[in-house]
Design a protein that fits this description.
alpha+beta, extended, 3-stranded antiparallel beta sheet, 2 helices, 6 strands, about 160 residues
């Protein structure tokens, strides 16, 4: 398996809320700039002396069990004038709340903290809310949903 690029207009899921957010970043669809989502790549280095000119990536392949990726030994370079770090953060423990060190998350059921029972009035959100049911969900969508749940639990 190799990395692929996705054209949101060719996608079977072209009405995805994630793609709507990305489309909103470019006011003129005919503009020469674009955002490309690439998968199974690990950044190795940023290329350029005074500003970003590209990024060198190591290609990965899915493991046999599909649980992760492993380096293939191949690299590729992608031209880029802007590089954003948007992955790799990890949740930190909050005093007096349960915390799963292995996943960097607060155990929860739809945002309500559990230990092992639901703690009424205590909610988690964002990266520390992620669990196996939510892997791959978009951060913006999760934040919005967590805010709605929080508001709904307070206003009753």
């Amino acid at each position: 398996m190799h990395s692929t690029s996705a054209d949101p207009n060719d996608s079977a899921d072209a009405s995805s809320p994630k793609l709507d957010v990305l489309r909103g970043l470019v006011p003129d669809p005919a503009a020469p700039r674009r955002i490309r989502l690439r998968y199974l790549l690990s950044p190795l280095r940023i290329i350029g002396r005074e500003h970003a000119e590209g990024v060198e990536f190591g290609r990965n392949a899915l493991t046999a069990d599909g649980a992760g990726g492993e380096p293939t030994g191949h690299t590729e370079t992608v031209d880029a004038g802007l590089v954003l770090s948007a992955i790799g953060y990890r949740g930190l423990p909050v005093p007096d709340l349960p915390f799963d060190d292995a996943t960097g998350t607060v155990p929860n059921e739809r945002g309500r903290v559990v230990d092992p029972r639901t703690r009424h009035g205590v909610l988690s959100g964002g990266g520390v809310e992620q669990d196996s049911e939510h892997v791959g969900d978009g951060g913006v969508e999760n934040t919005h949903a967590a805010g709605q749940r929080c508001g709904g639990s307070v206003v009753r």
